[in-house]
Amino acid sequence: MIDLYYWTTPNGHKITIFLEEAGLEYRLIPVNISKGEQFAPAFLAISPNNRMPAIVDHAPADGGEPISVFESGAILEYLADKTGQFLPRETRPRNDVLQWLHWQMGGLGPMLGQVHHFKHYAPEPVEYAIERYHKEGERLYGVLERQLEGREFVAGDELSIADMAIWPWLKAEKQEIDLARFPAVAAYRTRMAERDGVRRAMARIDDINPAANVAMDEEARHHLFGQGR
Predict the structure, then answer these.
(1) How much is the pLDDT for 174?
(2) Domains of the chain listed by start with CATH number
(3) pTM
(4) In this predicted structure, what is the pLDDT of residue 227?
């Protein structure tokens, strides 16, 4: 049994997609980051960076005490190694997947997150920041466009943890990047959305946070952008 500490963000979706695609039994534990639940001592004990997602594996491969893992990329790699799914064991294809996983973790996610913030959440417009991050977002879409040409998935012919990391950030449309300029990315985004496992993962949004698209209030802004309680 895997306990998944989750909220309805792109990083949270990465892990529900893995669990649904892998058919693993899991318990979803909401961490409402708009209400500051990520700062609760019990959560910080497993996720010291006060970010979700995090997991607790109650049946680790070594048969020992439960293992907790934080950071979405580390969780994906841990689950892939645990199950033997979505991450090749052979050196070269494994390297391909891990490169694109870390590209998402170090580039696509953080940069698009800044696009989202300065376009939609900053208390006042900062034109330099909006332009700078939007252009970087477009550059990263271009990198992905070239990689996806002639490929069904990011790292080859089979679904991998790289796809699970990348797709939720493409789904989050607040970056307002024109997909007409990136046809391979647009087709990939649709292909991924049509997978049964992805559909099941996305259905958890309404289970946990039916108000996901409601405008942010001041309490949420404080907890999300105040860097502490």
Answers:
(1) 77
(2) 2-85+199-225 (3.40.30.10), 91-194 (1.20.1050.10)
(3) 0.92
(4) 53
